[in-house]
Amino acid sequence: MSETQIRFGILGCAEIARKVSRAITLAPNATLYAIGSRSLEKATKFASSNNFPETAKIYGSYDAVLDDPDVDAVYIPLPTSLHIKWAVAAAEKKKHILLEKPVALNVGEFDKILEVCEKNGVQLMDSTMWMHNPRTKKMKEFLSDSDKFGDLKSMNAVFTFAADPDFLENDIRVKPDLDALGALGDAGWYCIRAILWAADFQLPKYVTALPGTVFNKAGVIIACGASLHWEDGKVATFHCSFLANLTMTITACGTKGSLHLHDYVIPFEEKQASFSTATESGFTELVTGWVPLPSQHTVMTDVPQEACMVTEFSRLVKSIKNDGSVAEKMWPTLSRKTQFVLDAVKVSTEKGGEAVSLS
Amino acid sequence: MSETQIRFGILGCAEIARKVSRAITLAPNATLYAIGSRSLEKATKFASSNNFPETAKIYGSYDAVLDDPDVDAVYIPLPTSLHIKWAVAAAEKKKHILLEKPVALNVGEFDKILEVCEKNGVQLMDSTMWMHNPRTKKMKEFLSDSDKFGDLKSMNAVFTFAADPDFLENDIRVKPDLDALGALGDAGWYCIRAILWAADFQLPKYVTALPGTVFNKAGVIIACGASLHWEDGKVATFHCSFLANLTMTITACGTKGSLHLHDYVIPFEEKQASFSTATESGFTELVTGWVPLPSQHTVMTDVPQEACMVTEFSRLVKSIKNDGSVAEKMWPTLSRKTQFVLDAVKVSTEKGGEAVSLS
Fold first, then answer.
1. Of the candidates A253, A276, A284, which has its C-beta nearest B245's C-beta?
2. Which residue of B has its CA nearest to A258?
3. Catalytic sites of B, residue numbers
4. Mind listing the pLDDT tens digit for each residue in A119-145?
5. What is the pLDDT of residue A4?
6. Which one, out of A50, B16, B265, B330, has a CA that is 20 to 30 A from the CA of A288?
């Protein structure tokens, strides 16, 4: 069994690394192999409180993880500003990379990461977990069905959560030297990804930031929105914020159908996930009700979406390691498109809502 | 019983008048008394196929309805371009007015209608039926609860339906000389009303039309969107269209809670209506699920919302007629605010998305 398992090293003891550590444990083809932190004490504590095997390596630096020849892949949950340094360093050591989102501070930095990954034959995947939920595939089948959904015409995505005062003061996501993209890079990443996903990853022609962006004192975005516009007339809007109650909503309207869900980033429940669809909705004779009624669909997720992600990533890594396959380009391509649109929204925000072309 | 019933005359045989005729029949304090059409034949047919009492008056003109001294109130479902003429004529004959939306081609016209109504002591109410659904009151209680919802921060409203080729060619809502406001006046009216309703009818400081407005060959809007911005930083977006599957969605995010529903204009079912709320939503320890889960609320509506509307309108009319009360100003005030914002969105659309101030 052990030769088929991808050995993970984790860089840093971020809170999100706890969830991903569990996912690595749950994935049948992955194993927790090493943890590195600038503090050996923190690394030791992290390993012991997150079910690392007793044989796991505990390191007092990130470099030590990268220098370990038995580490196949690293998970990088470091602040965005550190991605370029550590993703490049990991790729140069031929470690495959599961990278937290946003993947970089801008697409230029990400391209440098990509270049080194390609040069070293390293698999890169961003840690957008919901992409790997089995529900996502089912929803995509619906969106791709020309009879049930038709062509996407408009979409709205929302991701907000109510950060507490400590978060708004101290979290890395409000710090210009750490996660400088703020709510746009964090919650907005998911909105943009969802919109691109629904649009078959066709890039919009241009984007415009909506008025009303909220910046903190340090100039980091803590709430914003944008509209995205495609050549074929498709439109999408999104809103992301640290200032409103947790909301994760997608409304997608096609020529023939509609899709709704309210927990697209993190399902309400771990073991099952639902969504609602409607096709060729009309009214009763006197317009006093709908015919047909929308349908509710529930998809079982015995393996949580983050473990599905680790499994898929590890499958690709194993295929490179054991079978001599080349790295799968789809995943970094999706990361790059998401970052590219995110950058454009940020520029539009800075230019007071001016349309920013993506062509 | 009969002296307490408000006697309705209906101007024209519009399809929507069938639904409102039934509502008048269902309302305990209203009765179908007269129908007028430019064609006596059409009026006769309409009366017989919509359960008018045998004693109902059938007229071959709208004027004849207004000249009937026993008509207390009129329902005006005529094309928007005719509202000013017939609402003014009705008010001058001291008929109370239930007026289809949009209430006028612009707020200037509506102000003329209002002036004549006030001069003649006539009650005016627009026919935005969902405002009278008992669910609406329950949702408002939630939105007004500072512990459960807090302050509204952002909102998205969608109303689209997939018009068939005949509609897109021939319906009054695509004709510049009839319902010249097109999808904005029809579906957009509801979006704007919902947003204002959630914002306690505080007017936004400015609105901006989103790019991507779709016009038909005659220059009538058949799809558009806008963002609305308040002094306190609240933001809202909406999208309305004749080009996508029937969708009626509200997503409202407050500092402490969220509200969702997908059938705000016309409930899925006539006898009950639901909505979903969440308060202080958070995550399980490893962020693998939500705590607490959102709550689903169902409100019974034994009397359909349009009959609730007729009942409320008739109650106000009776109070004027029998008790010497003055007309209730709240309803025309809400109509005016909705039309005012709608006008601003239209101007912004025409100016390529320039911000239009409402102050």
1. A253
2. B245
3. 101
4. 999 999 999 999 999 999 999 999 999
5. 81
6. B330
Q: Are residues B345 and B219 in the same domain?
A: yes
> How many residue pairs from chains A and B have C-beta atoms closer than 8 A?
215
**Domain co-membership, A310 together with A300:** no
Q: Which residues of chain A neighbour B162 with C-beta distances below 8 Å?
A: 255-256, 280
pLDDT at B3: 53
Residue contact A290–B266, C-beta within 8 A: yes
Nearest chain A alpha carbon to B239? A154
Statement to judge: residues B126 and B159 lie in one domain: no
Q: What angle do CA A154, B174, A278 make, to 5 degrees?
A: 35
CATH of the domain at B92: 3.40.50.720
Confidence of residue B4 (pLDDT cuts 50, 70, 90): confident
The pLDDT, as a whole number, for residue A1 is: 43
Q: Tell me the CA distances in angstroms from A84 to A96, A107, A174, A343, one per residue in order.
A: 14, 11, 19, 16
Residue A230, domain member (yes or no)? yes
User: What b-and-e string marks burial along B75-104, b requiring 16 or more CB atoms within 10 Å of the CB?
Assistant: bbbbbbbbbbebbbbbbebbbbbbbbbbbb
Catalytic residue from among A57, A95, A101, A234: A101
Same domain as B344, residue B260: yes
Residue B252's H or E segment, with its range, is strand B243-254
How far off is chain B from A192, nearest CA to CA, in Å?
16
Structure tokens at A220: 């980091």
pLDDT, tens digit, for every residue of B165-188? 999 999 999 999 999 999 999 999
Q: What's the whole-model pTM score?
A: 0.97
Chain-chain contact of B245 with A214 (C-beta, under 8 angstroms)? no
Tell me the shortest Cα–Cα distance from B235 to chain A, in angstroms.
Answer: 7
pLDDT band of residue B2 (cuts 50, 70, 90) is very low
Q: What ipTM was reported for this prediction?
A: 0.95
In Å, how far is A300's CA from the nearest CA of chain B? 14
Q: Do B227 and A211 touch (CB under 8 A)?
A: yes
Paired strand residues for B224: B240
- In chain B, residues with a C-beta closer than 8 Å to the C-beta of A142 are none
Per-residue pLDDT tens digits for A296-350: 999 999 899 999 999 999 999 999 999 999 999 999 999 999 999 999 999 999 9
Closest-approach residue (CA) in chain B for A243: B255
The verdict on a CB contact (< 8 Å) between B268 and A227 is no
CATH number at residue A237: 3.30.360.10
> Residue A167 sits in which domain range?
131-305+339-357
Is the distance from CB of B231 to CB of B206 less than 8 angstroms? no
Task: Answer yes or no: do B153 and A244 touch at CB < 8 A.
Answer: yes
Provide mean pLDDT across the span B79-88: 97
CB A341, CB A358: distance < 8 Å: yes
| Section A237-266 average pLDDT | 98
Q: Is residue A334 part of a domain?
A: no
**Is there a contact between A126 and A99 (Cβ–Cβ < 8 Å)?**
yes
